[in-house]
């Protein structure tokens, strides 16, 4: 048994500094390289303990650690969380939630928090871009010492922004405080003010991460020298190697020549490792002619490139396991690939690039009260269109695709809409917009099919034609009017039928409350059936009145309907 390095994911809103932070850490590692062999791994950056101690300097002086270092997953956005799982949980042991202290919480930050909550992953908040606070001067020392060296106005602005962030986290259900003021890290989320650009606060961030890993994750990080388990990070074509996978090994040892079970698009498959590759150390990676070097084995936790036959059949987020007992291992991989999402007979169709992203999306949609009919990994096909078409509710005739393609056969459908994106919150934003638009369309269609309440007043001095048809100016007092509807007076007597509605020389299909329009009424004569100042109501059949009583109407529409019922009863 040995303690592996914890896997750390970096989450946060776009442009809040995820890449800048990792670039700074990597750059510092190159500077500290004589202290430990730093390699820029595939989709991951390994930072050995010696390098962390060198970057942290006096902060870790005299401290002893069993944790050998940190492995940062440097994939963009939520990828590390939504697509990468280890045994049904999150692949990452720890996370950094990076927030621009000047902008505060943004939509993707909130989404990141929901994902961290779903997987119950411990996290630290990096309050980035302190250098952008007006008047900020770079200084040495920890945050309390650096703040002392700032002018009062700068300190005040920092405090305002910092406690606004604390308040936002509190609203999300997390008690948070500056890391140097926390006594119990199990009850509070640590906030570390940093500048990824200048490196201020980064040593403190690394100190907190290594400290938390040592104190709270030691048991979780114990791993045996047994058959490796891992997750596919990316499937790539490499010149001279064919299709390879970049993978994270989170348990055990992987060796060249090992037989492995890999999760595939059509179920698990078995292949044999031809080569294990790692990039050369950072200062040598600039030579693209020989980017990788062969290694005989890879120990958890690490990033590694695997070359083996048939890898084009796998996908990002698929599990990998060295074969020990073939039948059992295949069953285990099948279980890991199984999708744990509640589905219903009526609901939207969900497609994604990996099981993890599918589950994360389903989790967020459930929070919005959206039901799911089918959730599946893979590109959008004709079969998905056919399934979406069988939904009775028009609001469910949609397919959401995260990071997937639409196959040519599936592109045309008059009934079903397809929404795709490579960023979860963009996809959900597009879906919200579609839903809003679709609801309006459905409501409009419903109003066309069932006559809705409407009440108008004949405006004095606005008689354009006396009869055949009568054309008069009216104000819509409540509800709406449409061509083809019959009108009655408030004494129950019939007026005639609306032939057309015009507003500023434009023909309208509907006029709503508050509008003043010209209406042509067939069968009415001004001075006989109608007079200026007259109130008229849309006539509605008994059957439609019955249907309207069960519908959501506005207060004004409900009021007009009550008036109409009263008129009809009296008549």
Unreliable runs, pLDDT <50, ≥5 residues?
none
Total count of strands: 34
* Radius of gyration, CA atoms, in whole angstroms: 33 Å
Structural class: alpha+beta
Query: In oligomeric terms, what are we looking at?
Result: single chain
Q: Mean pLDDT across all residues, rounded?
A: 87
What gap, in angstroms, lies between the N and C termini?
91 Å
- Please give the share of residues in helix: 25-40%
Q: Tell me what portion of residues adopts beta-strand conformation.
A: 25-35%
Largest sheet, if any? 8 strands, mixed
* Topology-level CATH name of the largest domain: Rossmann fold
- What is the 3D form? elongated
Please identify which CATH superfamily of the largest domain we are dealing with: P-loop containing nucleotide triphosphate hydrolases
Proper CATH architecture of the largest domain: 3-Layer(aba) Sandwich
Main sheet: which strands, in order across? 3-4-5-2-8-9-11-10
- CATH class (first level) name of the largest domain: Alpha Beta
Helix count from the secondary structure assignment: 13
Count of distinct structural domains: 4
